[in-house]
Amino acid sequence: MVEQIEALASYVPKIIVRRLQQDPTPIAKPRIDRCAAAILFIDISGFTRLTETLVQSGPAGLEELSLVLNAYFSQMIDLILGEGGDVLKFAGDALLAIWPCEEGEADLSELTLRACQCALAMQRYSLSYRPSQEASLALRISVGAGNIAIALLAVSINVGNIWWSAILSARFIKPKPWLTPIRLFSLPRLGLGLHPIVRA
């Protein structure tokens, strides 16, 4: 079973791997795990224009689009993992990452700092990355911190409230070619709305 869990580790969030290490029985019923966590949401702006530009080159353009996105997301993932985070979800050109508080490890303020450091590193990378002459990519980034609940289902992880909070925060950010704004917010206690803290 250990070998199976290790093989699965590069394809699923660390939350699932840790749960399987603690209890390897398959998830048969929904389960809710609660913890304090820092979260990071990124949304890539410019993806549609890049797609339209590269598609004009036919199959070669589609291949280039695939290479560009793989390189871009690979760097984002490396930055998240480098700061001790965990990728929870992809949705098109968006990504959600988490830094959960674990017993005996860093506290929420330390984890939030790591998420912010990751956001700034993503910002630096994004500003230096130009996939083609005709199009560029920019990021909208939100960092949040607070108490969360994650539902582990038989086939998926439900992170709906976290995802929505991050999307709502990033939605109001207008990326500029020279600056990627980062919004920091606290996660609402009951999931009823956003509580912005800092806008950089």
Description:
This protein is an alpha+beta fold and 200 residues long. The protein has a single domain (27-199), classed as 2-Layer Sandwich (Alpha-Beta Plaits). 41% of the residues lie in helices and 28% in strands. Strands 1, 2, 3, 4, 5, 6 and 7 form a seven-stranded mixed beta sheet that branches. A hairpin with a 2-residue loop joins strand 2 and strand 3 (94-100). The chain starts with a helix and ends with a strand. The model is unreliable at 160-180 and 188-200 (pLDDT under 50).
Brief characterization of the structure:
With 200 residues, this protein is of the alpha+beta class. The protein is 41% helix and 28% strand. Strands 1, 2, 3, 4, 5, 6 and 7 form a seven-stranded mixed sheet that branches.
